[in-house]
Amino acid sequence: MYQKYTGGEISAIQAYIIIVSIMIGTGILNLARVVSEVSKQDAWISVLINGIFISLIIGLITYTVGRFPELNFLQYCSYLLSKPIGYLISFAYIIYSIAFTATIISFLTEMASTWLLPNTPIFIISFIIVITGVYMIQHGLTVLARYNEVIVFLLIPLALLIFVGMPEVRLINLRPVGATGITAILKGVVPSFYAFAGYEVIMIYYPYISNKSKHITKYSVLSILLVTIFYTATVISQIALYGHEEIQHVLYPSINYLRAVDFPFIERMELFFTIFWTLTVLGTVGLQYFATSIVLQSVFKNKTTRFFTYLLAPLVFGLSLYPQNTPQVADIGSIIGNLNFFFGILLPIILFIMCIIREGRRKNEQKI
Amino acid sequence: MKVENYKSTLLSKKLNENLLQLKDIFSDCCDIIYRKLKINVGNTSLDLLMVFTDGLVDTQTINEHIMKPITTYQPSPTLKTLSSFTLDTLKNVITINNVDEVSNYQEVLYAILSGDTVLMVNGFDIGLSLNTKGWAERTVEEPPAESVIRGSREGLTENLSSNVGLIRRKLKDTSLKAKELIIGTRTQTMINVLYMDDLVNKQLLNDLINELESIEIDGIFESGYIEQLIEKHPYSPFPQVQVTERPDKICGNLLEGRIIILVDGAPLSLILPMSFFLLFQSPEDYNERIIFGNLLRLLRFLGFIIATSFPSIYVALISFHQQMLPADLIVDLSKTRAQIPFPPVVEALLMELTIELLREASARLPGTIGQTIGIVGAIVIGDAAVRANIASPAMVIVVAITAIGSYVLPHYSTTYPLRFLRFPMIFMAATFGAFGIIIAWAWIIIHLCSISSFGFPYLSPLAPYDSEFTKDTVLRKPFWFLRQRPKVANKNNRNRWS
Fold first, then answer.
1. A8 has a pLDDT exceeding 70
2. What is the pLDDT of residues A127-155, one digit of tens each?
3. Which residues contact B136 (CB under 8 A, 6 or more apart)?
4. Are B103 and B126 in contact (CB under 8 A)?
5. Is B446–A132 a contact, with Cβ atoms under 8 angstroms apart?
6. Least CB-CB distance to B464: which of A112, A149, A151?
7. In which element (H, E) is residue A69 found?
8. Is 1.20.1740.10 the CATH classification of the domain at A12-367?
9. Is the peptide bond prior to B461 cis by the omega test (within 30 degrees of 0)?
């Protein structure tokens, strides 16, 4: 125990928390709206299907990456897909991850600006968030994982806030169940990608888990299912509260519906939501930001990530200022969600297939 | 000159040479007393020299138990010649409990300067160091900065050996070790490192002792010197070593496998390693029944949050988020604030600064005057400030609650981070409202995650998470659930109940 956790290592529990923490972030704000745009009152089924699908994907990821406990992202990509493609994927991931980090920061900035600081210039809010992110990750993965471990307890009040709308819920809004048809429900999966995006960082963080055991696959899947239940409950309660037509006119249903509910002493409960939510999203920013630094470090073979952390800060800050207004941020979010289709779903499947092929070949060689 | 420079200088067999050497070393030291004696050996007599420091010795002990036996000594018939006289003979004559042999000047000087009496005999190059320590000291009193309602009233004193005694009396176990170190090249301060031999983490202990031995400072006057010399994050506002003056708290921590450092002359001892959650623990939590002990602990956490954030939350609400409060309340608040010429942040900083000044003044002044200052400050200044429209009544209430909240932590010196984190929080709240408070808290959490106390993460067992977290941190489970020692202890001996 003594000095065990001082290096750049994380425990298995921290890895599960990382998965939960990076997924529950900015996506939850408009999840109900964007999904119900396509699959109407059955949006929650879309979300549930996506969650189950992604829990399969994370099983594939942990299986594949678990074959190479000593290799980092670049190394096993190079091993499985040849070196040039490994580098190509790493560079693509770096660009995607920077864009993702900037998008999360834009979301957070927009939120803080709309709900808390309407008169403060956007760039100052964004600047503070970037500084907080840099401060969080400059000490390495250990501190980042610990921060998320502390913050994950805030998900409990956040989860409770979902159910405060219960007395006003009209279940008729959810009926008829499944009437939109299977194609619509499956199409509704696509807009929910952004909300689920982020779990692919486990591909980067896996080599840093100090006590790798067989249970990692099991608990990673359970983490995803936990998030899925959380998201499904959110979507159900919000659609039941608003109805799928009305919800289209609400920008951020997760916050707006708190306004619909009266509390005895506190006038605006949504501000409390924002407080808990901001701390959670800061953790998401840190995780995505640090994933970029780690991949950059492995590409350029530096000793520490700190140099890249500082190097990326102005870039991330500049990019986060690019969207001019809230709908634009949401649009960029959906683009990122579509990009996630490659890194979060396609890449793990390709890696898994290559891994199977390689192993089969090796077994054949051994037989000969 | 430093005492350790005399290590190579050995005692001479001739008494006069030793006397001259000592007089040379202690030139112009009027408190060093040289006393020549004679002891009967057969028909002749032998010269003795007694050296001690006036004020550090118990003169009655010297008179009764050294001088009297020696001067009235009648040698037995077998002891006829000088050659048959040994130091053992002398040791049998003197009725002093603790007698050591000293051979070089470092030992001689250290004995003299720490209150022992050195007895030298003509013809021997070995002297005797006799325990005659006795000086004015405080008796065991109730610890002023750490009092409890239910629990022992004993507090540590400035005397190291009686402090170890207080601990030994509560913990009758052979594995309680007290390792002696001398730190401070000029003060030659005695340090005792206390630990349970079979419970302590050996690697931690060795590292600590190596670190203590490598200290080369000239003077140690308080345990705070040691604390600052061994902590790893000196610029962090959070203490990485726990400070206590309660023997019962020390014993409890020893049984958890922690290490105690006692410093001679300091009534405050150090406990390490510590974690964030130990800031909130007091012996009373264990002495009281389980429900109320836990409620007290929760109150302390509430106090921590109030003391750090309450004024900043008030500032943020008043200057940015008025809509968060119910309409009736905000109308009343704005009515009282209408006459105030300052923005809320100036008002808050002004009042907080006043109360910090008051607190510092009342802590420094003698008891009764301190109370008077407190009453004058709290009532007169607060009331006058409201009447003069300098501060609103709500602000006075906020400041008062904050001040009370910061007192709930069990030990006074751990309240400093709370008191001084408040000001940056107010500043952040005044600039960025609730968002500023969130960011400030994020910074605090990140900082707490990044520091460690002697290799143990500061927020453990919360981050990194451990099942210990559910046992004895924010809440305490009943004793029958606490059968395991914390991870701080030696991992081979974690079972408490056996």
1. no
2. 999 999 999 998 888 899 999 999 988 88
3. none
4. yes
5. yes
6. A149
7. none
8. yes
9. yes
Three-state secondary structure call for residue A323? coil
Q: Which residues of B touch A13 (CB under 8 A)?
A: 464-465
ipTM value of the model? 0.92
Amino acid identity of residue A368, one-letter, is I
Q: Tokens 């940056």 map to which residue?
A: B424
Distance CA A156, CA B263 (A): 46
B446 → closest Cβ in A17, A128, A136:
A136
Q: Give the whole-angstrom CA distance, residue B5 versus residue A176.
A: 94
Helix, strand, coil distribution of chain A in percent, nearest 5: 80, 0, 20
Cβ–Cβ gap B326/A112 under 8 Å:
no
Note the pTM of the prediction, 2 decimals.
0.90
Taking an 8 Å cut-off on Cβ atoms, the answer to whether A279 and B443 are in contact is no
CA distance A284 to chain B (A): 13
CA A85 from centre of chain: 25
Cis peptide before B234 (omega within 30 of 0): no
Please enumerate residues of A whose Cβ is less than 8 A from a Cβ of B.
1-3, 5-6, 11, 13-14, 17, 112, 116-117, 120, 125, 128-129, 132, 135-136, 139, 143, 145-147, 149-151, 265-268, 271, 274-275, 278-279, 282
Domain residue ranges in chain B:
3-130, 160-274, 291-456
Q: Which residues does B contribute to its contact with A (CB < 8 Å)?
A: 201, 203-204, 320-321, 323-327, 432-435, 438-439, 441-443, 445-446, 448-450, 452, 455-457, 459-460, 462-465, 487-488, 491
Comparing alpha-carbon positions, the chain A residue that sits nearest to B441 is A279
Q: Residue B487 — φ and ψ, nearest 5°?
A: -65, -15
pLDDT tens-digit map of A159-193: 887 777 777 778 888 878 877 888 888 888 888 88
Residue B266 carries which DSSP code?
A: -
Closest Cα in chain B to A4 = B455
Helix (H) or strand (E) holding A72: none
